[in-house]
């Protein structure tokens, strides 16, 4: 039998728990923040994430683009957002793992976000355009040509401090060949300049080259994954060509603000696992050069920590600082 004292205590505990349980069980409207313009690869991935989160996670899910500062504005907004499951961030790893090493006044840290799920991976690639002779077929060929033609020895990237920039800068540093960096605001304008011959080479995610590879207007010399990309199976990796230090695959992760309820994290992560295990997942992401790659919250947390540690020595070796 339950006496009055125990009954009142149990009732009080139940009442106290109800608001938290309600928050954990359902979200009415959720926003998925994206730190890049609409129409890009990150935006496309975010819209697929939003579709999968409806209606199981939230009744309404909208993608909100907050481009600027290399994706940092969206991460800063996530930090300021309430930890009630209503705001999520879909971002490339660099915003969380690389940027803390580049920006001394970064407004957020890896500890300010809660890992929800890894969603996809992408390899980087080095492409050359019509400014480079067709006889240049490998990375070593390109370096030899660049050394012999210093006035044309340059490369573009989607932005200063981006992972593709860091990889190409490391190539320049380790090879001893001076390659001038031409930063762009995203891949699209850089690829157009590459096709037009205004920039000699370009370092970017493999998906940016896919619409142009079959036309022959540009050539991909190397990809950055541990094995050849299924999107360019005839192109050898950096590692195959003797540049093991350039092996890099970036992942896209879904995050929530710090101190969010574990139940919300688990529910959103389960939705991502379901999406990425579907039979058509690989085909859906293929046009963007992405590979489905689900990671649990714990696995994503470990990936954040490991990659954060890995970028430190690379940034130091390259010697780049956006504040320079």
CATH architecture of the largest domain: 3-Layer(aba) Sandwich
| Class per helix and strand makeup | alpha/beta
Give the low-confidence spans: 1-24
Name the assembly state. Answer: single chain
CATH class of the largest domain: Alpha Beta
Rg over alpha carbons: 22 Å
Q: Gap between N and C termini, in Å?
A: 73 Å
The count of helical stretches stands at: 12
Please tell me what the overall shape is.
globular
| Sheet with most strands | 8 strands, mixed
Mean pLDDT score: 90
Instruction: State the total count of DSSP E strands.
Output: 10
The H/E string reads HEHEHEHHEHEHEHEHEEHHEH
Amount of beta strand: 15-25%
> What proportion of the residues is helical, as a percent range?
40-55%
What is the CATH T-level topology of the largest domain?
D-Maltodextrin-Binding Protein, domain 2
Description:
This protein has helices at residues 4-25, 41-53, 72-80, 94-97, 99-102, 139-148, 163-175, 187-196, 210-213, 262-276, 281-285, 297-318; strands at 27-34, 58-65, 87-92, 113-128, 154-157, 180-183, 201-205, 219-223, 249-257, 291-295. The protein has 324 residues and is α/β, with parallel strands linked by helices. It folds into two domains: 4-121 and 250-318, D-Maltodextrin-Binding Protein, domain 2 (3-Layer(aba) Sandwich), CATH 3.40.190.150; 123-246, Periplasmic binding protein-like II (D-Maltodextrin-Binding Protein, domain 2, 3-Layer(aba) Sandwich). The strands form two sheets. Strands 1, 2, 3, 4, 7, 8, 9 and 10 form an eight-stranded mixed sheet that branches. Helix 7 links the parallel strand 5 (154-157) and strand 6. Mean pLDDT is 90; it is low at 1-24.
């Amino acid at each position: 039998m339950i006496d009055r004292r125990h009954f009142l205590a149990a009732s009080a505990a139940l009442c106290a728990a109800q608001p938290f349980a309600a928050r954990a069980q359902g979200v009415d409207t959720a926003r998925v923040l994206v730190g890049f313009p609409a129409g890009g690869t990150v935006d496309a991935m975010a819209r697929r994430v939003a579709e999968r989160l409806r209606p199981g996670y939230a009744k309404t899910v909208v993608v909100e683009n907050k481009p600027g500062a290399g994706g940092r504005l969206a991460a800063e907004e996530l930090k300021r957002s309430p930890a009630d499951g209503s705001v999520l961030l879909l971002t490339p790893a660099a915003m969380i793992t690389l940027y803390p090493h580049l920006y001394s006044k970064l407004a957020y840290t890896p500890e300010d976000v809660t890992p929800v799920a890894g969603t996809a991976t992408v390899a980087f690639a080095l492409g050359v355009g019509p400014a480079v002779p067709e006889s240049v077929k490998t990375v070593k060929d390109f370096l030899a040509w660049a050394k012999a033609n210093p006035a044309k020895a340059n490369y573009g990237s989607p932005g200063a401090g981006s992972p593709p920039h860091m990889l190409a800068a490391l190539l320049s540093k380790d090879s001893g060949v001076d390659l001038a960096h031409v930063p762009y605001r995203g891949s699209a304008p850089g690829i157009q300049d590459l096709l037009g011959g205004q920039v000699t080479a370009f370092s970017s995610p493999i998906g940016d080259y896919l619409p142009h590879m079959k036309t022959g207007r540009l050539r991909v010399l190397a990809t950055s994954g541990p094995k050849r990309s299924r999107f360019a199976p005839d192109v050898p990796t950096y590692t195959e060509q003797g540049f093991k230090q350039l092996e890099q695959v970036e992942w896209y992760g879904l995050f929530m603000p710090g101190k969010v309820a574990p139940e919300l994290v688990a529910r959103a992560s389960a939705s991502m696992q379901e999406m990425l295990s579907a039979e058509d997942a690989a085909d859906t992401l293929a046009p963007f050069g992405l590979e489905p790659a689900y990671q649990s919250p714990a696995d994503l947390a470990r990936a954040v920590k490991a990659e954060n540690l890995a970028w430190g020595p690379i940034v130091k070796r390259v010697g780049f600082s956006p504040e320079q």
